[in-house]
C-alpha cells in the first residue's frame, strides 16, 4: 500500500515523503480500515510517540496522521461491534502508524459509526480537534450556560469547533484571531471578536474560561483575564502563569468513544460544522503540508476513490 512516511525528526512537514509499505496487521481487538479521508496535525511531528513505540524503540519510518474517516476492511481476533464494509471515523493510536495511508490498523474502541449523510472529508476534520475542544471546555473547564469564554485561535481547527460547542452550551463566546479571521469567527456564532493584531487583550476580561491553542506570550497574558473561580485551559504548553484566584490546566486530548459519538450526533444534525481549509491527494501531502501553506481550518487528505 502507499503511505506518507516521516524519517527525519528535524525536517518537519517538509520532510514527509510517499512510500510503499506492507498491508497492516490487525492485532487483537483491532480493525484494519480502508482510509477515505485523513487529517494531519503538524505538531505531531514533535510528539515522542511519532518516533518511538510504547517501549521506547525507534519506529521510523513512521506514518503520521491520527484523524481518520474510513470503511472497515478486516477485523482482528476478538473484535466486536463493527462489521466489514461499515463506514466509521475516529482516532488512530498515538504510538502506531497513522492515517496518511491507504490502510491503517486501529483499536476498535477508538472508532464510531459514521452518521448517514456525513461526508468522509468532513468527518476526518473532527476527531482530534472536536475531542480537544469538548474536553477542554467541559471536562477540564466545566463551562456552563451563562459563563463567558475567550477562545484563542478561534478560526483554527480546534478553536472553530470550540466556538460552536460553547455557543450551543449557552455561553457568551469571545473568539480571538488575526484581522483576516474576523468574518470566519463571527460566522461561527461568536458573540465578539478580539483582533490580536489591533485590540488590547487586557481590555477583554474578566472571563470565566480562557481556552488557548496558541501558547507563548498570549497564554502568559491570558492568566490575568480569568475571574475568581475561573479556569485557564490550554493544549499548547504548560502555563507559566496561573490565574490569581483560578485554575490553570494543560492537557493532551484523550481518545474517547462516547465523546466521538456525541460529536457524531452534532455532525449528523448540522449543529457542528468543521472548517476544512483545503483537500489534497495522498501524493500531494509533502507539498501541500510543507511550511508556508497553512491556512485557517484543517487540511484533509483524501485517499480512497470517491472520498
From TrEMBL:
Enzyme's top EC category: oxidoreductase
One Pfam match: ADH_zinc_N
EC number(s) on file: 1.-.-.-
Protein name: NADP-dependent oxidoreductase
UniProt-listed SUPFAM superfamilies: GroES-like, NAD(P)-binding Rossmann-fold domains
Domain Enoyl reductase (ER): 12-301
Record's signal peptide: none
Gene Ontology MF terms: oxidoreductase activity
UniProt keyword terms in alphabetical order: Oxidoreductase
InterPro entries hit by this protein: ADH-like_C, ADH-like_N, ER, GroES-like_sf, NAD(P)-bd_dom_sf, YIM1/Zinc_Alcohol_DH_Fams
Record flagged with keyword Transmembrane: no
Source species of the chain: [Mycobacterium] kokjensenii
